[in-house]
Task: structure prediction
Amino acid sequence: MSTIWVDLLGTQTHYVGKKFRTRVIEAGMGEPLLMLHGIGGHAEAYSRNIGRLSERFRPIALDMVWHGFSSKPPFSDTMPAYCEQLLDVIDDLGLPKVSIEGESMGGHIAMYFALHYPDRVHKLILNTGRRRALRRGNGPDATRRRRELAAATLA
Result:
């Protein structure tokens, strides 16, 4: 039986950023892949993915501001603040370009970031994003197609 602690063996948990204090969980040495959780979530949402992805990538799961153990700055306009946080993380880690996977709210943030900073994004994977924002179809067939598209994007 696997637990979150077993799933996270071999990962590093630390803080990065100069403007925001952002907690990240990462592993691997390959192409950087930022992983953005949904609303009310935290970096451990990806505990079962980080190890396997680290075989080919450098997965970096983070706590978004106002979530988990990251900074809780005074509330402001959320999307620009999330983008500032991503830029802070990317710059502090010395990464010129990253791929981003976002789940739910994280997908919305990833899409917004890619639209405003396309030169910093290599690949974009949107997982269970807000349907209105993504203009996607509904139902199990659409969900399966989105999963297949995400897998093909990473290949």
Q: What stands out?
A: The chain has a mean pLDDT of 85. The chain has one domain: 4-154.
